[in-house]
Amino acid sequence: MGKIICISNQKGGVGKTTTTNALAMGLKHKGYSVLCVDFDPQGNLSFSLRADARLELQSSVYYVLKGELKTGQAIQHTELANIIPSNILLSGIELEFTGQGREFLLRDALRPIERLYDYILIDTPPALGILTVNAFAAADILLMPVLSDLFSLQGIVQLHETVERVRAATNPNLSVGGILLTRFNPREQVSSVIRETASDMAQTFGIPLLETSIRTGVALTKAQILRQDIIAYEPKSKAVQDYQRLVDELLGKKVL
After folding, report:
1. pLDDT tens, position by position, for the chain (256 residues)?
2. Cα 155 to Cα 42, 121, 202, 205, distances in angstroms
């Protein structure tokens, strides 16, 4: 049975989609079978992985959750990845589903296909609403990308509280794989303070702080805009190399 990994943070712009993309490419290059689930109505992961998320296709995760499409029918096999795409229709789930058990929609949708993949990666929206709760309820492991600044670190508190509520109510087996510092600049003096603060917070909440930090890299943005394999596009990029080290760390520590 494949492991389901959720990449989440309630703040936007912390690198959730980039991290999901890079992990998918890194695991794929190591020979693992990977499915990406775009669970953000913005659909950025779908775009970067060359999925077709046009509304008129009626083939997205939204229709899977509504029960109008089988999960396997929604999977697109692009040159880059296997992905269940998303689009703006997904934002209506909050209002459309108000009944009991709505937090298990994604978990139930993934069950028929989870044995087909080594890893299922879920990219989440920058909010802690019903979509994120669904992702937490479906996941085995949660990864938290956090911008390398002191204000962003404060968001760990709120995210931790949400995780604890989900554990108590819907998914007691949810494991936090670690905090990932993104846009990290080791040349700045404040970087050591940021890492120390992140380490203190991680210890307070019993969450691992991953050894790998992701430096800023233009190649990451370019690869996604051009819809290219992040790993293959510019392998000498420091940020790309960081993500490769991240995959090695997560596998080596058996987080994945």
Report:
1. 689 999 998 888 889 999 999 999 999 999 999 999 999 999 999 999 999 989 888 889 999 999 999 999 999 999 999 999 999 999 988 788 777 889 999 999 999 999 999 999 999 998 888 999 999 999 999 999 998 887 888 788 888 888 898 899 889 999 999 999 999 888 887 888 888 988 998 899 889 999 999 998 899 999 999 999 999 999 999 999 999 999 999 999 988 8
2. 21, 22, 12, 13
Give the distance from CA 196 to its chain's centroid. Answer: 24
Q: Is 143 helix (H, G, I), strand (E, B) or coil?
A: strand
The maximal CA–CA distance of the chain, rounded, in angstroms, is 53
**Tokens standing for 161?**
């509280």
Q: Name beta bridge partners: 7.
A: 123, 143
